[in-house]
Specification:
globular; alpha+beta; single chain; about 110 residues; six-stranded mixed sheet; 6 strands; YaeB-like fold
Length: about 110
């Protein structure tokens, strides 16, 4: 399967975790919003540049489907999985990576 694009989506189940993470970034609300924007934009850029699976992501084969962990900011990691591909033309598909969790560094039993 050939992918022409990769997008990052944040699952509804991580909304509250995103709010908590953003609140931890700074005391000033304006600074929090700016920092969150920078970190989220950089995270998405890294996932897209790596065609959904950046080389520095940690692969977690304990889950089905396999998930990936990538550091979002200073000790907070985002766990994501590949969503269902969408056909965009006769020979290409769009890849969707879905963020499903925020947590501290994943356990050592991942690859």
């Amino acid at each position: 399967m050939r992918f022409s694009t990769t997008t990052v989506k944040w699952h509804v189940c991580v909304r509250e975790l995103l709010k908590q993470w953003q609140a931890s970034l700074a005391v000033n609300p304006d600074e929090r919003a700016k920092l969150a924007h920078i970190y989220l934009e950089e995270f998405e850029r890294r996932v897209i540049a790596g065609d959904g699976k950046p080389s520095d992501a940690i692969v977690d084969e304990r889950t089905k489907p396999v998930t990936y962990w990538l550091e979002l900011s200073g000790g907070t990691w985002a766990q994501f999985a590949e969503g269902e591909p969408r056909k965009v033309s006769l020979f290409s598909y769009a890849r969707k990576m879905v963020v499903i969790n925020l947590a501290t560094r994943p356990q050592a039993s991942t690859r």
